[in-house]
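The methods section describes the discrete structure representation at length, but only in general terms. What matters is that the chain and its backbone geometry are given together, residue for residue. Nothing conveys this as quickly as seeing an actual entry. For illustration, here is how one protein appears when written out as sequence plus structure tokens:
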Amino acid sequence: MDLSRLSDEVESVSQRYAEKLGIERDDTWFLLKLQEEVGELTQAFLMRTGRARTKGRTEDELDAGFRAELADVLCHVVLMARHHGVDLQAEIDRKWLVHNP
């Protein structure tokens, strides 16, 4: 899946979520939601690596939780970029892929 298509699809999901819960997705919301998801990723990582209580979850459940939180962070980065009119693919090309031989 390319970033443009991913952006369109996660935007659709996010809009429905916000409408259902009466959330105003403004500049602050996008930043705070991303921060929330990074926090959840941190918690999942700590649980998975034995640095936090596992709350009775199995190793498979901890791995699944970690993977899910990575997806949440990625999607919220994509949403924030879209909200601010950032062409994420162009920025990745400029910042990262320019160094690819």
In short: DSSP finds four helices and no strands in the chain.
